Amino acid sequence: MLVSSTMHLLSMCVLSLVLSCCQGRVDPNFRIRAVNLGGWLVTEGWIKPSLFDGIVNKDFLDGTALQFKSVTTGKYLSAEQGGGSILVANRTTASGWETFRLWRTNETAFNFRVFGKQFIGVGTDGNGIDIVAVSKAPGHSETFEILRNSDDKNRVRIKAPNGYYLQAKTEEVVTADSQGNKGWGDDDPSVFVMKMTGRLEGEFQVTNGYGPENAPQVMREHWRTFIVEKDFEFISQNGLNAVRIPVGWWIASDPTPPPPFVGGSLQALDNAFQWAKKYGLKVIIDLHAAPGSQNGWEHSGCRDSSQEWGKTDETITQTVAVIDFLTSRYAKSPSLYAVELINEPLSPGVTLSSVIEYYKAGYAAVRRHTSTAFVVMSNRLGPMKPRELFPMASGLKRSVIDVHYYNLFEDMFNNMTLQQNIDFVYNNRSSQLNYLTTSNGPLTFVGEWVAEWQVVGAGKEDYQRLAEAQMEVYGRASFGWAYWTLKNVNKHWSLEWMINNGYIKL
Ligand SMILES: *[C@@H]1O[C@H](CO)[C@@H](O)[C@H](O)[C@H]1NC(C)=O
Ligand SMILES: *[C@@H]1O[C@H](CO)[C@@H](O)[C@H](O)[C@H]1NC(C)=O
Ligand SMILES: *[C@@H]1O[C@H](CO)[C@@H](O)[C@H](O)[C@H]1NC(C)=O
Ligand SMILES: *[C@@H]1O[C@H](CO)[C@@H](O)[C@H](O)[C@H]1NC(C)=O
């Protein structure tokens, strides 16, 4: 038994040597064991909350979702028909039409985007006091201030650009003609009770929150201190062999990216490549934020949750140019291992045909500069067929399908026991991965996973089992896996913490 498995191993090694010698053929035994450098591109608020501390009015970042209940009508402000019409104050419950997303123009001035994506403003017809939601692009007439009651921050007035305050005159008439000087009682139709129902904390929010004066300094400091050379040393000393580095599309126009983004991200990536070389680590460049946003989440550089990527040819062409830029810059680096064309495109907003059109063009862009780098293509999230990329990817050499196996977000995990969670990994995740792993199709990559779950009272050993189960199953992915993430304020999401505290050992 022992002898035969040793023999088997030996012959595998010989085989892999033979294979790896021949014009860049892939060593079939090699697997990426990577960690994501999430948070370097500001990808989630809770990665480093202190990054937001210096922002004036930090409740009101881009994309913050607000609802307003009139104290006099007792009903919610609403964009009639979701947009394209007037504002009313006659809705008893609040959801899409009653939700306003902020665009921040400076620390005190905001645009309010409605469900149909229009901005509210003072109507140009009539007497200059009607509030409508018709503008497609915000200007002076769409710029408002929010004034908060100092005793109760959720009682607010909204000051219109004509200098007057919004008021719900009746349930069906909302105008900008109140002096707003009657105190904060329930009898003043210019007073609203504000409720925050959503918030984004990504790189757009940080940079626009600080504004052009302060953002460059804040981001430079973040890049200088958040991930440093020592981290690459740590990664290489703890059994990992690669890093997956999330970047934003604006990196391609560094050092002068379109505002609010600031220059310096390219230098940070250059540094990463230098450190990777020094410590023998491979790099997977991951385009995490694509122009227009491919998923509406803050980690895609999104301003207000709307998802525009792929809806125009322009967003696709622009993204291909970013891939071209990044690959050409790093193709000669011995550390460049793979280029991931886009992270987590979300169905149905991103259609199969647009993502396939993009993957073909993105693949060609990588191949213009390197024949050896792998090209990673993410399966869409949301409704999709697991093998939907196969017809396209199977013909492409060194292509890889990326899937993200988080086991805690779905409701179905809420009431699962420890053992059920572990079984889910061994049974369900395993068969999902098997279904994707074929002998002549693309390689498979579990590009994000974490040893965290929805189990209350789990102890250290339980976490160890969960991590081991995942490493065992995801270790069978033919390309490899990457943990999300290296550093995080939530300890189980921090691979650094998990390693330093003996929860994960490679
Ligand atoms: C913010 O913008 C508003 C409207 O454009 C302007 O009136 C105000 O002076 C600006 N405030 C600051 C602090 O720049
Ligand atoms: C609210 O007012 C608008 C405008 O008059 C009207 O079209 C709509 O039906 C009203 N909605 C409710 C829920 O009363
Ligand atoms: C979990 O169990 C509780 C109590 O039995 C139940 O109220 C809840 O609906 C369950 N949640 C899910 C997602 O099944
Ligand atoms: C896991 O797989 C089993 C067996 O195929 C199936 O019965 C079960 O519903 C799956 N569980 C979940 C949560 O999808």
TrEMBL record:
Residues 57-196 form the DUF7910 domain. The keyword Protease does not apply. It comes from the Eukaryota. One of its GO terms (cellular component) is cytoplasm. Keywords: Glycosidase, Hydrolase, Signal. Transmembrane segments: none annotated. Residues 220-488 form the Glycoside hydrolase family domain. Residues 1-24 form the signal peptide. GO terms for molecular function: actin filament binding; hydrolase activity, hydrolyzing O-glycosyl compounds. Belongs to the glycosyl hydrolase 5 (cellulase A) family. This is Mannan endo-1,4-beta-mannosidase. It comes from Gossypium stocksii. The lineage of its organism: Eukaryota, Viridiplantae, Streptophyta, Embryophyta, Tracheophyta.
